């Protein structure tokens, strides 16, 4: 019984193997029936795992690009997304056939041929279009030249310098290298030099214009060896008109709006405070909105950040100007009252001094009168002395001593004027601060704008 079961198992295994062999033979026959006779002859003895000229030096691969579109350019991620047509051309001596016409094959037959292992160096994400079928092209020429074309959409990294944003120019690259074959096995070259890349002249980008592009050939050096490398450089210049309308004009108008407070009376505290605070908050919102589309890197102080900072400083300065002018108004009124009190006190002291002098003079006169009446000699002497006066006028009975009080008041008044000229809070008329601000603020803003635009546009 056991022998019967084991014999049945062996028979089942043999039957299944015979069926698999017959199905594989049928598949090969069907595949051979699909291929035309010319391709069958070419594929006979062809090994796709060996490169052309395996024992006779490197195979040269010529490349060309057609830029179909550049979809997005992201400053946050520092990359760009492009759809390209990559065309590669090389010669395989094993595919030489007689005739004068090329053979265009189905893209799915590329699995039967050797193709270069080209890859995009800085690619973050790429995919091959496969609607309705994989977008591949295979064309074989009678001399053995193979044309292989692909349609690829790739997201490539691009290092950007945003210090002059939005008046910047960015140079991005598209680098093509061989993954496994070094320069001893494969050599890359551009088929037509700088003319190998086409399609940029007809591109319509949202914020950029393509100013220049060129190609170069180099080598990539890694630990595993030297590999062929092709580089396509293209320069993008940002269109500034959008940013002028979106950021520069609104921020400048906010600065002008803050100057309206200079023509409002200092006594209108709510109106001037409302204008100052509103413009400061609006400018802060505008600055936050301008930074949302940019990387939050501390190393980048962008041109637009500098301009927004300038505008914010002028708006904040207008608010501080009103605070200073209003404070000077308050101190000016207190100083007026204090000065009036000082003058009244000085006037009282002066009047008291005059009254004291007059009373002292009267007392001295009363004391001298009794002694002068008994004798007449002093009277005659007095009469004799009077004519000897050079002016012929009656001399004063007694010279009044200099009053130190008036001199001290003069010195104090001079010091007060000096301190008032030095201290900005003690101005003669606080309303003059607004008058000066109406001129200095616009002139300063115009000068700063001239320096800003000259530096970032021409340096």
From TrEMBL:
Signal peptide positions (record): 1-22
Membrane topology: Multi-pass membrane protein
A single GO cellular-component term on record: apical plasma membrane
UniProt cross-references to Pfam families, sorted A to Z: Neur_chan_LBD (PF02931), Neur_chan_memb (PF02932)
Domain spans labelled Neurotransmitter-gated ion-channel transmembrane: 247-453
Annotated InterPro entries: GABAA/Glycine_rcpt (IPR006028), Neur_chan_lig-bd (IPR006202), Neur_chan_lig-bd_sf (IPR036734), Neur_channel (IPR006201), Neuro-gated_channel_TM_sf (IPR036719), Neuro_actylchol_rec (IPR038050), Neurotrans-gated_channel_TM (IPR006029), Neurotransmitter_ion_chnl_CS (IPR018000)
GO molecular function: GABA-A receptor activity; GABA-gated chloride ion channel activity
Region (Disordered): 361-403
Skewed-composition ranges (Low complexity): 371-394
Gene3D superfamilies named in the record: Neurotransmitter-gated ion-channel ligand-binding domain, Neurotransmitter-gated ion-channel transmembrane domain
Keyword terms of this UniProt record: Cell membrane, Chloride, Chloride channel, Disulfide bond, Glycoprotein, Ion channel, Ion transport, Membrane, Signal, Transmembrane, Transmembrane helix, Transport
Subcellular location: Apical cell membrane
Sequence intervals crossing the membrane: 240-266, 273-294, 306-330, 439-458
Domain Neurotransmitter-gated ion-channel ligand-binding residues, every copy: 39-239
Task performed by this protein: Pi subunit of the heteropentameric ligand-gated chloride channel gated by gamma-aminobutyric acid (GABA). GABA-gated chloride channels, also named GABA(A) receptors (GABAAR), consist of five subunits arranged around a central pore and contain GABA active binding site(s) located at the alpha and beta subunit interfaces. When activated by GABA, GABAARs selectively allow the flow of chloride anions across the cell membrane down their electrochemical gradient. Pi-containing GABAARs are mostly located in peripheral tissues.
Known partners and oligomeric status: Heteropentamer, formed by a combination of alpha (GABRA1-6), beta (GABRB1-3), gamma (GABRG1-3), delta (GABRD), epsilon (GABRE), rho (GABRR1-3), pi (GABRP) and theta (GABRQ) chains, each subunit exhibiting distinct physiological and pharmacological properties.
Sequence similarity: Belongs to the ligand-gated ion channel (TC 1.A.9) family. Gamma-aminobutyric acid receptor (TC 1.A.9.5) subfamily. GABRP sub-subfamily.
Protein name: Gamma-aminobutyric acid receptor subunit pi
Species: Acanthochromis polyacanthus
Species classification: Eukaryota, Metazoa, Chordata, Craniata, Vertebrata
